[in-house]
């Protein structure tokens, strides 16, 4: 989601799901590791934990939200930020 016209704390959200705690951790660690190795970009922080169903990887202008399906539906970031432009949607 492109948030540049709607907020100052981030330019983009990337929102994705994992089906269980192990997968949520693996996705978060994989994203942070890949950014470090291939993009030479370090995450500012990894917040939350897989047990709560929401892990956030903060790259500054890009914030990656990794949810369990239930937690994603509950917090509904897509609905909350519905005025933001969706850059890409994959199923």
Fold and architecture overview:
- The chain has 91 residues and is an alpha+beta fold.
- It has three helices and four strands.
- Strands 1-4-3-2 form a four-stranded mixed beta sheet.
- The protein is globular.
What topology emerges from the helices and strands here?
Layout: E1 12-17, H1 21-38, E2 45-49, E3 54-58, E4 62-67, H2 69-75, H3 77-80
Parallel strand pairs: 1-4
Antiparallel strand pairs: 2-3, 3-4
What attributes does this structure have?
91 residues, alpha+beta, 3 helices, 4 strands, single chain, four-stranded mixed β-sheet
Cα(first) to Cα(last) distance is 15 Å
**How do the strands of the widest beta sheet line up side by side?**
1-4-3-2
What is the count of β-strands?
A: 4
Q: What is the helix fraction of residues, given as a range?
A: 25-40%
Oligomerization category of the chains in this entry: single chain
Low-confidence stretches: none
Main β sheet profile: 4 strands, mixed
User: Could you spell the SSE succession in H and E letters?
Assistant: EHEEEHH
Strand content: 15-25%
**Apparent shape:** globular
The number of helical segments is 3
* Alpha-carbon Rg, integer: 13 Å
